[in-house]
Design a protein that fits this description.
The protein is mainly alpha-helical and about 80 residues long. Helix content is about 80%, strand content about 0%. The longest helix is centred in the last third of the chain and has 36 residues.
């Protein structure tokens, strides 16, 4: 998220909200898979688990960004 500082605040906030919402959705899905309830965890544990999901999502975004750039540059060689 360090590289987001070069963008306007409204874009940074929107990206953070999208990532947070997706992390919460993934967390809830993981709870269903493991047959757990939110009440089984403390607030601090929930926050840590959601933060971990956010890190995973950001890593995936970086990976696909690099793949996209590589694909565009590779196609340039064939045109």
């Amino acid at each position: 998220m360090k590289n987001l500082n070069k963008y306007p605040k409204i874009i940074r906030d929107k990206y953070k909200k999208i990532v947070r919402d997706k992390a919460i959705k993934n967390f809830e899905h993981e709870l269903k898979l493991r047959q757990k309830k939110v009440s089984d965890f403390s607030d601090d544990e929930i926050e840590v688990l959601i933060a971990e999901e956010e890190r995973k999502i950001i890593a995936i975004h970086k990976t696909f960004s690099y793949r996209g750039i590589f694909a565009i540059l590779t196609l340039g060689w064939f045109i």
